[in-house]
Amino acid sequence: MTSRLSVDIGVALWQREGAANHVADLVDQSRGLYERGIPAVWFGQRQDHDATTVAAVVGAAVPGLRVGTSVVPLGPRHPITLGSQAQTANAASGGRFTLGVGVAGPERDAATFGVRIARPIAHLREALTVLDAYRGMGTVDHAGPHLVAHTPVPSQIAGGGGFGLLVAALGEQALRVTGELADGSIPFLTGPRTIADRVVPGLLGGSGGAPRRVVAGVVAIVTDDADGVREIVRPALDFYATIPSYRSVLAAEGAAHPIDLALIGDEDEVAAGLRRYVDAGATELYVTQTDLGGRRAQQRTWDLLAGLTRTAPN
């Protein structure tokens, strides 16, 4: 039997195809994962559900389960509004919510929302400054070149303060800002070499050497048909090969395509791959795309993760 890892492992969830109710399905999946022994679930943000709201609903419906977003783009969202949502989700989940945010990129924000952030790192710094103050004191008084945020009265929600704050940071400047103002990074599809050589030292450079959370997102599927499943998963990862920051990660990892960073194989192969992330400095893991290999492969993957995660839910 494979020994447990020294970190907790969560699962990123999307609704199942054909679900009669999108949110109810995510609650049902989350409850099943918690009962199986998975301590945390994460929800991504597209243009369908609101990830922070889903996390709040799931956290309230499944007591004990840790919930988070991976990730909410900052560009079109004012940090006071986002902080209010995060406080609500943290109160609803009994203090078990982590807000993961990211910078989508100027072109994507402009195409989707008609918003163009001219200086994304400067905007990130101001947004994190506001969010950090808001989660700590419930009050903000900030006027910067990119953001204005004022709360004329205290806005702390009972039970909502102190939510976790992570950033999908990969670049040197973004990691430094994250190390200064957030709890850590939530990098996706990076590879263990990037975690060890870029993410961990980059965060420490912005935090004066203080430890930071590194929640590594990994594509992992347990299957006996590794080649066949890779061909299914490859198109889902093509998009990341077009993003400059991910192309730099691929080069650093010696990978030709993001599929080369996916852990697809039997239980021993996937467990060994996850262990490499822990050895590289990841303090937590979350596994995504587990549904792309079919129902049986997903169940095997979840069973493996439950057996590997550091702490089983109470």
From TrEMBL:
Residues 17-283 form the Luciferase-like domain. This is TIGR03564 family F420-dependent LLM class oxidoreductase. GO terms for molecular function: oxidoreductase activity, acting on paired donors, with incorporation or reduction of molecular oxygen. Keywords: Oxidoreductase. The keyword Disulfide bond does not apply. It comes from Tsukamurella strandjordii. InterPro entries: F420-G6PD/mer, Lucif-like_OxRdtase_MSMEG_4879, Luciferase-like_dom, Luciferase-like_sf. Gene3D superfamilies: Luciferase-like domain (3.20.20.30). It comes from the Bacteria. The keyword Transcription regulation does not apply.
